[in-house]
Amino acid sequence: MTDHTSAPAGWYPAPHAGNELRYWNGTEWTASAPPAAPSSWPNQSGATPYPVAPARGVVRPLRGIAGATRILLIVGAVFSLLTVVVEAWGLVAIEGFNQGLAAISALELYDTLSAPISLVSGAVLLATGVCWLVWQYRAAVRILAMNPTATRRSPVWHVISWMIPVISWWFPFQNVKDLVVASRANLTSGILGTWWGLWIASTTLVSLSGRLSWNADSLSDYTAAMSTSLLGEVLSVAAVPLALMVLARTTEAMEPAAR
Q1: Are residues 124 and 75 in the same domain?
Q2: Are 72 and 46 found together in one domain?
Q3: pLDDT class for 168, splitting at 50, 70, 90?
Q4: How many domains does the chain have?
Q5: What is the distance between the alpha carbons of residues 252 and 183, in angstroms, rounded to a whole number?
Q6: How far apart are CA 56 and CA 154, in angstroms?
Q7: 20-77, pLDDT tens digit by residue?
Q8: 32 and 76 co-located in one domain
Q9: Does residue 166 come out as left (phi exceeding 0), alpha (psi in the -120 to 50 range) or beta?
Q10: Taking a C-beta distance cutoff of 8 angstroms, is the pair 219, 94 a contact?
Q11: First to last CA, the chain
Q12: Is residue 185 domain-resident?
């Protein structure tokens, strides 16, 4: 899973320079451009006079997919806030029903509101996850093209590590940290660690609330499920600004905006 292979020193297409030839000294790219090739050099088969490194993947722009991911993260945060409001109102409705202060219609209204919000929130979360994976894959390809030993895992592992139980608790964090360190993004370990801790806590609580709700047999069981869901959504909202920071600063470090 860890790639320690480095191409030998020589002239290669450098992705950070628009795939123009640059000199790779075995560790990093230099700013040297190759000398002009004499017109007498044979080029009958389309061969270039310089060695070409094996392609690790097509280096694609990051800003477009980063922008789409940013929008979806914000939309997801809005639906998380809606979920917090609905869950809090549902808890009040259940308490009022238990005390004889609210009618059963209040609980029915809670069900009517929570179901569509949950469905849309899940769809937004899925779309956000897909966009984030595309962004992270492209970022990993870009970093490895510039320095073959910059990350501990391949671009493919940057994607699938999110989907494997248990491994998904720490591999994705290590992978993102590799991208941040390699790109020299303006992010501290505290920001990364807080973002990841909030993400793990929120997803764990939301997943737990789903299981509690599925197995609920009484109003008290539903109250526990709703309280757990509410806390998970609050942590999810708190994680979004940090996720936006990680996304924006890493993208800017790899693909600076034109000045």
Answers
A1: yes
A2: no
A3: very high
A4: 2
A5: 9
A6: 9
A7: 666 677 777 776 555 544 443 344 344 444 444 444 557 789 999 999 999 999 999 9
A8: no
A9: left
A10: yes
A11: 38
A12: yes
Residue numbers of the domain that contains 109: 63-254
The owner of tokens 């980063």 is 66
Residues 112 and 204 in one domain: yes
Say what the pLDDT of residue 15 is. 61
As a whole number, mean pLDDT of residues 153-175 equals 94
20 bridge partner residues = 14
Per-residue pLDDT tens digits for 93-141: 888 887 877 778 877 888 888 889 989 999 999 999 999 999 999 999 9
The structure tokens listed for 240 are 């979004």
Q: What is the dihedral angle through the alpha carbons of 77, 81, 86, 87, rounded to the nearest 10 degrees?
A: 90
Residues 125 and 2 occupy one common structural domain: no
Amino acid at 122: G
- Please indicate, yes or no, whether residues 109 and 169 belong to a single structural domain of this protein: yes
- Shared domain for 139 and 243, answered yes or no, is yes
Decide: 235 and 243 in contact? Cβ < 8 Å: no
pLDDT of residue 216: 81
* Sequence-ordered list of residues with C-beta below 8 angstroms from that of 149, at least 6 positions apart, any chain: 3, 4, 5, 6
pLDDT surpasses 80 at 253: yes
